[in-house]
Amino acid sequence: MKTNPKFKFISWGGGLQSTCMAVMSALGDLPKVDAVINSDPGFESQENYKSIAWYLAWLNRHGLHTEVIYPENNIKLDFINNHIHIPVWTQTGAPLTRQCTQHYKLIPTKRRYREIAGYHPVNPPHPYPGEFEIWIGFTLDEHERRSKSRKKYMVNRWPLIELGMTRDHCIDYLQSHGLPIPPKSACVICPYRRAKDWIYIRDHCPGDWKQAVLIDKQVRHARPLANVTSDSVYLYRGLVPLDQANLEADAAAYEARQKGAAHQIIICDGGSCWT
Ligand code: SF4
């Protein structure tokens, strides 16, 4: 679709790629966007929060309107109390349908884009088709994550892919400007984490790991999770309690399977997590 966007927004996950894209926009290596928006689901790692706070200040200082917004609820509590599903693994080996990305990321950011553009967050009149261009920080090595926006007035765009950039290019870019490398951005309890990512949380973020282990236990037989037919659910895709998983062996096995293939850690296409 040919578009004539009046507003350009960056969906800022807070991780390497979307941060790199925002820095490129601030430094003139990409066109300047109207705003950079991060939506905080309430339970990212302390490391992520530090990085997001640092870049929030840096981007605003460099002339890019950048915000963190806070959806009313908190993913840590909602999953248990309010039945908003994160993709926990069921005994069939499949994850629950993911509701969290919509609830904590896509809907709040869409509303904020509308407000910034002068619209009511929900009510008509709506922006014209293609009025908002949403930049998503996927790189060439994860191009299969691209998907179209469900809203006619929002057109997704992937500038890093257009530039042929990979994750490594983003690292090089930030380092060449003397900027810190953001950690992977995702909720601590995100079930899309692979063994290697859980090892990282366990070894580098002990407080977050403790909470994840506790939440994993709490959800095990969480019948209050609406429509869950599985007797037990797990944060870890190996279908064992997180603190009993042999993460090192699983990580090595995954690595062996992936030889020659790109490291694909997630299956989330929302564009606002893991970017
Ligand atoms: S990072 Fe994972 S748990 Fe958090 S909103 Fe995204 S998909 Fe859901």
Explain what you see.
It is globular and about 50 Å long. It has nine helices and five strands; from the N terminus they run βαβαβααββααααα. The protein is an alpha/beta fold. The protein has a five-stranded parallel beta sheet. 39% of the residues are buried. β1, α1 and β2 form a beta-alpha-beta unit. Bound molecules: iron/sulfur cluster. Iron/sulfur cluster binds next to α4.
Provide the CATH superfamily of the domain at 7-82 and 98-176.
Answer: HUPs
Bound molecules: iron/sulfur cluster
Q: What topology, given as strand order, has the largest sheet?
A: 3-2-1-4-5
Low-confidence stretches: none
In short:
The chain is α/β, with parallel strands linked by helices and 275 residues long. Helix content is 37%, strand content 8%.
List keywords for this structure.
275 residues, alpha/beta, Rossmann fold, globular, binds iron/sulfur cluster
Indicate the topology.
Blueprint: E1 7-11, H1 16-26, E2 35-39, H2 46-61, E3 66-69, H3 75-81, H4 100-116, E4 132-136, E5 154-157, H5 159-162, H6 167-176, H7 195-204, H8 206-219, H9 247-258
Parallel strand pairs: 1-2, 1-4, 2-3, 4-5
Helix pairs in contact: 1-6, 7-8, 7-9
The chain binds iron/sulfur cluster.
Iron/sulfur cluster binds at residues 41, 86, 98, 100-101, 104-105, 186-187, 190, 192, 268, 273.
